[in-house]
Design brief:
The complex is a heterodimer. Chain A is of the alpha+beta class. In chain A, the strands form 2 sheets. Chain A has a 6-stranded mixed β-sheet, sandwiched between helices. Helices cover 47% and strands 16% of the residues of chain A. The N and C termini of chain A lie far apart (56 Å). In chain B, the strands form 3 sheets. In chain B, strands 1-2-6-3-5-4 form a 6-stranded mixed β-sheet, with helices on both faces. Chain B has a 6-stranded mixed β-sheet with strand order 10-12-8-13-7-14, sandwiched between helices. A two-stranded parallel sheet of chain B has the order 9-11. In chain B, helix 10 crosses helix 16. Classes of the chains: A alpha+beta, B alpha/beta.
Chain lengths: 506, 472
């Protein structure tokens, strides 16, 4: 390149550097974020972001599968599905008559369920009779249903990305709408939690069962993950997958779901974040008006069970007609623990990108894996959880070889200080990724509501990045030594067996 | 409906007591002029789009190069995939890929390359403060890739892993085999990478691909972020202006195979759910019926309130996943298909329900209420096509790549508005052709409630992976 051009280039670069600083730090967000707790206990966050005449919202509810007990596993997720079924006025031709019909469904189901579950003196004829009575009651109640009405309204009014998700820790509802539908949104979103209707419950239970078949039963990775998490937790509900056990999915009732809702969908447990082309004052007014209808109720009691210290290594070997997979996990403290930023650094150092240690060792140099990574805060991080590793083997290599290679990386963490440059790389990336996460309505709504709910203050989003900056090599060695111990380990792996019948590759 | 008012509610004296959905005001959407990127064509044919976006201190960009996997030789399927990976990981003549990784990660920046059906690309994402260090890396990758052998071996190893695992997941099998049924197993839009085609790819073939394609008249450069467009334009002109134009770009023109109607089956013993796909070839994006099909898709098979979703999932509880579309692609006919996944026992019932709904659609079309709902939904959510600058920019790049007018989206609203029930019925009859449908099932036949043969002659598909290399 000739010298004249390079001078011009320098000028361009200089001008880039002095462009006004954009809104990406805590100080600027302090001015943009409005937080309010309503008298009933519900928390609302509003951020004005006027890129286009649209807004996104997230409703986070502090309930997940960790709030379930034996017999109702999968119910938190099941309720999430039911929150799309409408209310006493949306999705029905006659709310009052339907309510009476649904009460009869519950009576009939209770009779049928107790007859079929008798361990002694089960009368098959009686079971069949009660089952038909239950199905007849459902058919009666279905007469009042306007199927899909809730989703139809949202979509028809221009809503996009309508969906929800349930994890071990929380349930999240979200979509985006044109900004002239703010009041309509406030109505719809509050309405479904003020008076949800549990219509079509048993059909939706079948849908969720199909979701289980899709995610867990029919996928080798799903099967292995379920074994992994259940082996790792012997007492805490984190050991139950979010989707729930098949037996529970085929037996819990709308009455169970109603009880679960009343217990956990209390305003104190709910966080609503609205981000986009909205006016803060108007948004607050609408949220107060509509969500204020939720009656204040006490928060449910905490999960009492704490996972006890593990006494010895555990291992599950799944002989499966698929290629090998490897999981290895270690118990670690909850997300609120002061060492959490150290685990954040560990996860990044080990598993983010092509500079990460697992990539360079297991994938690039030892050629054992096509991909290797870490799961941090698995399956949740509200309670003590797992720091886990996984490896996807290359053809001809086994899960056992992955185990050996991981051990070498773990020993390195315990015995050698992480070089300053490598640590700095992690810290820089964390800062850059924070900024990248601030550029969308839905992304902001997700992050701010998450930090507000889980850590009590949306500012933790920024502070956490600051805390990561002060993690030292000594912290990493200390935490690695305390965590990656043999007796604290759970392994789950797939050992390949031939497929039956013909049709697969072996 | 008046509810028991909470104290908080009463305090808002001026608050209207709402009576329900219909009474809630929907004021008109404020006037909104979406940002438009600057488009510049350099004398050597390179097209440049620039979009200022000052919200965050970032600069992102991509350089798309025309020509992708659709044009790779049949005996080297996978070439563009390996090329797209090793272009970056294999480093440049000056620096290894690992050195680039270290350099970029230390700045929280990314430079990546990739390959797809129609293009290959180099893209970057960095903080404004490091742009001056990152952009030279982009140029170095663009001009001086080294395609080092160790990284070729690594990319091939990863691809071999993918081949070896491709029959582990039932949904993936269904996706793959359905495309073969639509386009033909050897079609560039359906063919799969095999151990043999992978083995045939060497460093020379990557270098040859690079030489053949890296000409400015094949490139579309798109940059967005926190910069001054005038200055960026000047910089890009200086950078790329001296590059020599290459040969003209020709269209791919892939022939579309004849339909393969029938009932096809892949037996998979380790599942308790069947993946069902009903497919035939779709349309091109410039089909005159495109807008009628948009409405048809929304009404029949898109979203929570579509007819298929309601009938199969909401009313019958047969599936969690259900959907589909009369599909389109920009430069070739897309895939028209409907899919669902249902427990093994209800496999045949699900196929019958799918077929019955399609038959009903072709007989009756969509009801007036469904038509209105579908159009409302498309029109009311239209603003989301423009709601981020990144999105607007990537649309413009797509239109440029495939030769569509830049104002394509401006035509969208009025065209949707005009669609009538008759248009939808006619489009459904023309573009959904039950006699051409290939019905594909991936599932465990031993558990089927009724045998698949009730629906007709079943053609089994052998998915055995040919020629696994010796274990290393």
């Amino acid at each position: 390149m000739n010298p004249r051009l390079s001078v011009a280039l320098t000028a361009v670069v200089a001008s880039l550097a002095v462009l006004p600083a954009a809104a990406q730090d805590l100080a600027s967000f302090e001015k943009r974020v409005t937080l309010k707790k309503l008298p009933n206990g519900l928390t609302v966050l509003v951020v004005e972001r006027k890129e286009a005449p649209v807004f996104s919202y997230v409703t986070r509810v502090d309930v997940g599968s960790a709030q379930e007990v034996a017999g109702i596993t999968g119910l938190a997720h099941m309720f999430e599905h039911m929150a799309f079924k409408g209310t006493d006025v949306i999705g029905t031709t006659d709310g009052a008559a339907e309510k009476a019909a649904l009460a009869k469904v519950e009576e009939a189901y209770a009779a049928y369920d107790s007859a079929r579950r008798k361990t002694a003196g089960r009368d098959e004829k009686d079971v069949a009779r009660l089952e038909s009575a239950w199905k007849a009651a459902i058919a009666e109640a279905d007469k009042f249903v306007v199927p899909g009405a809730f989703g139809e309204i949202v979509e028809r009014e221009g809503g996009v990305g309508l969906n929800a998700s349930t994890s071990s820790d929380e349930t999240t509802y979200f979509y985006s709408m044109p900004s002239n539908r703010l009041e309509l949104w406030a109505y719809l979103e509050s309405e479904r939690f003020v008076k949800p209707s549990l219509r079509e419950f048993y059909k939706e239970r079948d849908v969720v069962m199909e979701e289980r078949r899709m995610r867990t039963d029919s996928r080798p990775g799903g099967r292995l993950l379920e074994e992994f998490v259940s082996a790792a937790f012997i007492a805490h509900p984190y050991g139950n997958g979010v989707i729930g056990w098949a037996s529970d999915l085929s037996s819990f009732s709308a009455t169970d779901a109603q009880r679960f809702y009343e217990q956990h969908y209390v305003p104190e447990n709910m966080y609503v974040a609205v981000v986009g082309d909205v006016k803060t004052a108007e948004t607050l007014r609408l949220v107060e008006e509509y969500f204020g209808r939720l009656p204040a109720r006490p928060r449910p009691g905490p999960v009492r069970t704490v996972e006890p210290a593990q006494r010895g290594a555990r291992e599950v070997v799944l002989k499966d007609p698929s290629q090998p997979l490897y999981y290895e996990g270690y118990h670690k403290p909850e997300g609120q623990h002061p060492d959490e930023p150290v685990f954040d650094v560990l996860a990044d150092l080990l598993a983010t990108g092509r500079t990460s240690r697992l990539y360079r060792s297991l994938v690039r140099d030892k050629k054992l894996c096509a991909a290797a990574g870490a799961l941090h805060g698995f399956p949740g991080n509200k309670y003590p959880n797992l720091f886990a590793f996984y490896g996807v083997t290359t053809p001809g290599h086994t899960a056992d070889e992955v185990r050996g290679a991981l051990q070498a990386e773990i020993d390195r963490l315990k015995n050698e200080d992480v070089p300053a440059e490598e640590l700095k790389m992690v810290k820089t990336r964390t800062k850059a990724d924070l900024i990248r996460g601030l550029g969308s309505n839905i992304g902001l709504a997700r992050q701010l509501s998450y930090f507000q709910m889980r850590f009590g203050d949306w500012r933790e989003l920024f502070r956490n990045v600051e805390r990561i900056q002060s993690v030292t090599p000594a912290d990493i060695r200390r935490v690695a030594k305390a965590t990656f111990r043999e007796e604290n380990r759970t392994v789950a792996r797939i050992e390949s067996i031939p497929r039956t019948p013909a049709g697969g590759a072996q | 409906m008046i509810r028991r008012l909470s104290v908080a509610f009463l305090l808002l004296a001026a608050a209207p007591v709402f009576a329900g959905l219909a009474d809630i005001p929907r004021p008109p959407l404020p006037p909104f002029t979406p940002a438009k990127p600057v488009r510049v064509v350099l004398p050597n044919g390179m097209v440049v789009f620039l979009m200022e976006d000052h919200e965050l201190p970032l600069i992102q960009g991509s350089i798309l190069v025309r020509g992708g996997a659709v044009r790779e030789p049949a005996d080297k399927v996978g070439l563009v995939g390996i090329y797209g990976e090793v272009w970056r990981t294999g480093g440049t003549t000056a620096r290894t890929g690992d050195e680039l990784d270290d350099f970029l990660e230390a700045r929280g920046a990314k430079v990546e390359t990739g390959g797809s059906d129609d293009t290959t690309s180099v893209s970057w994402d960095c903080l404004v403060e490091s742009f001056d260090e990152v952009f030279p890396v982009v140029l170095d990758v663009l001009q001086n890739p080294a395609f080092r052998e160790d990284k070729i071996a690594l990319a091939k190893r990863q691809t071999e892993t993918a081949i070896s695992r491709r029959n582990d997941d039932a949904a993936a099998i269904a996706r793959r085999e359905a495309r073969k049924l639509v386009y033909g197993a050897d079609s560039p839009y359906a063919r799969t990478i095999e151990y043999a085609t992978l083995a045939a790819i060497d460093r020379d073939s990557l270098l040859a691909w690079h030489r053949e394609h890296l000409h400015p008249n094949r490139m579309i450069v798109a940059v967005s972020g926190d910069f001054d467009a005038k200055k960026m334009e000047a910089r890009l002109r200086r950078t790329f202006g001296s590059w020599k134009k290459g040969p003209a770009v020709t269209a791919a023109n892939v022939p579309i195979a004849k339909a393969r109607p029938g009932l096809y089956f892949v037996d998979k013993a380790d599942v308790n759910q069947s993946n069902v796909r009903v497919v035939h070839v779709g349309v091109r994006r410039d089909d005159p019926d495109f807008y009628a099909l948009e409405v048809l898709n929304e009404a029949f098979s898109g979203g929570f309130s579509s007819r298929l979703f309601l009938e199969i999932r909401t009313k019958r509880g047969l599936a969690y996943s259900v959907g589909g579309a009369v599909g389109s692609a920009y430069d070739h006919a897309g895939v028209t298909g409907y899919s669902t996944a249902t427990k093994s026992e209800t496999t045949v019932e699900s196929i019958e329900t799918l077929r019955a709904e399609i038959a009903r659609l072709q007989k009756e079309g969509v009801a007036a209420a469904d038509l209105a709902r579908a159009k409302d939904s498309i029109l009311n959510s239209f603003v989301f096509q423009f709601d981020s600058k990144q999105e607007i920019l990537s649309q413009q790049v797509t239109y440029e790549l495939y030769g569509y007018p830049a104002d394509l989206l401006d035509r969208y609203r009025p065209a949707i508005d005009k669609v009538t029930a008759d248009d939808v019925l006619r489009a459904a009859r023309k573009h959904i052709r039950p006699s051409e449908f290939a019905v594909l099932v991936v599932g465990k036949s031993a558990d089927f409630g009724r045998p698949l043969s009730e629906l007709g002659t079943v053609t089994p598909i052998d998915i055995t992976i040919p020629g696994a290399p010796e274990k290393r």
